[in-house]
Write a structure and sequence with these properties.
Helices cover 88% and strands 0% of the residues. By secondary structure, the chain is an all-alpha fold. α3 packs across α4. The longest helix is centred in the N-terminal third of the chain and has 132 residues.
Length: 249
């Protein structure tokens, strides 16, 4: 009996020890659950911002893509404008080259006209000088005598001046003052040159018309410009106007 009682007592103590151990295990399990629960809550709180940040990233990415597309569109537009500007510049350069070519041709034509006019004048001077050196023919001598009688002067200087004046008029047109000036340039006195020119029967209207035609053969003139040029050459306003009228200008 004592042995049985002792065994029961041992069994009871063993049961109590098992229950204490079980309680420790339960407490440990509860503590673990609490720790695990808190950890889960922390993980949930930590993950929330990550989940919420995804739409923001998508919005930023969409904005960046839109800005990139707009920049690409702007770049294409600027490139097109640059191409148009380059084409316009090229066309302007071609037009400028064309104008330069026309200007060069006009300058060459003007130089050629001036050279031809100078050659014509030089030839006229040579002809006059050669004629002055030759003895007058019989009919020319008679003309000179008639001119001397008309002018009221029979001086040899005036006769020679009249002869030179007629020679000049065979090659080109002169106004009265222009012809007197040419004779003075040849060495005749103003009095002899004036007397010689006035002794000749010269239609200065026709001389003005011939001068106007000569000018238009070598250069372009407006009506008023050509009249002014003839007046500058010594023609009167009426003579210059008549001469220009004959050209149809």
């Amino acid at each position: 009996m004592a042995t049985t009682t002792a065994s029961r007592h041992d069994t009871k103590e063993q049961g109590m020890q098992r229950m204490e151990k079980a309680g420790v295990f339960v407490s440990s399990a509860i503590a673990m659950m609490l720790v695990t629960g808190c950890g889960g809550s922390d993980d949930s709180d930590t993950a929330a911002p990550t989940t919420a940040s995804t739409p923001i990233d998508d919005t930023r990415r969409a904005d960046a893509e839109q800005r990139a597309e707009q920049a690409e569109s702007d770049a294409a537009e600027q490139a097109e404008k640059a191409d148009q500007a380059e084409q316009q510049a090229s066309q302007a350069e071609e037009d400028l080259e064309s104008v330069r070519g026309e200007l060069a041709e006009a300058e060459e034509a003007l130089v050629a006209a001036e050279e031809a006019l100078a050659a014509s004048e030089a030839e006229a001077v040579e002809e006059v000088e050669a004629a002055a050196e030759e003895p007058p023919a019989e009919d020319e001598a008679e003309d000179q005598e008639a001119a001397g009688e008309d002018s009221g002067s029979g001086s040899m200087a005036q006769e020679n001046a009249a002869r030179s004046a007629r020679s000049y008029l065979e090659f080109t047109a002169f106004s009265r003052s222009g012809l007197i000036g040419q004779l003075e340039f040849e060495g005749f006195s103003t009095a002899d040159a004036t007397a010689a020119v006035d002794s000749l029967d010269i239609d200065y209207n026709e001389q003005a018309a011939e001068s106007a035609k000569s000018y238009l053969e070598f250069s372009g003139f407006s009506r008023s410009g050509l009249i002014e040029q003839l007046v500058f050459e010594g023609y009167t306003q009426e003579q210059a106007t008549y001469g220009v009228d004959q050209t149809g200008l």
